[in-house]
Amino acid sequence: MKIAEVRQLFAMPPGRPSYPRGPYRFLSREFFITTFRTDREALERLVPEPLVVPDDPLAKFEIIRMPDSQGFGSYTESGVVIPVTYQGKPGSFCAYMFLDDDPPIAAGREIWGFPKKHAHPQLKVVKETLTGHLRYGEETVAIATMAYKYDPLDVAKVEESMLHDAFNLKIIPSVTGGLDVLQLVRYKYQDLKVHWAFQGPAALHFQPHVMAPLADLPVREVVNGTHLLSDLTLPYGDVAVDYLKDRAGA
Hints:
Elements: H1 3-6, E1 24-37, H2 40-44, E2 58-69, E3 73-86, E4 89-99, H3 102-112, E5 116-118, E6 120-126, E7 129-136, E8 139-147, E9 151-152, H4 155-162, E10 165-173, E11 179-187, E12 190-200, E13 202-206, E14 221-234, E15 238-242, H5 243-247
Parallel strand pairs: 4-5, 4-10
Antiparallel strand pairs: 1-2, 1-14, 2-3, 3-4, 6-7, 7-8, 8-13, 9-12, 10-11, 11-15, 12-14
């Protein structure tokens, strides 16, 4: 390759990147979100400054079924999202993500800094119960259940609640042993359409696991469950904070 050709590359591996260029469109994306109350101190150990954990220590365990994902195919994802504020405005911070498909793991980590690891989430309906499982290796580390399509929600209000800034802590090590990237990155869904949404009673259990430490967030109270189907676009984002430049005084 000529130098000019090298400069046109956009992702690894250069011979055939694991994913195409974005933005990325998702159709029939199914969310099962269990909102729970936990310990504020546990949330603060995960959330980087200058993000702020609100007084009410809530977190959300999500299982997301994605059957039609541009460039990524069909897969299921799960993780923990923490409500935060940034410069006084509401947002969310992604603390953990687990999924069963290599291309979105690579793209998620390399582009946006999603904290993705390979695991085996599953979302299914068992009789009258929406059921989410997360298995890491051979161990079940999370079980979430919700009464199926229990109480309809206003889809316009659900869409509005999903259109906030979301944040990740992006870390890329250097070949020298230091860091090339240490950033708080920001993004927001676009072209969002919620087809239907329900809420209802839910239950959540985390099993301790050293490499999937969801149980470090104790479930003090389950607030509710939310189940929705949507189409959305995940665009590129921007850098809210560059910690390496800040450290250098830039």
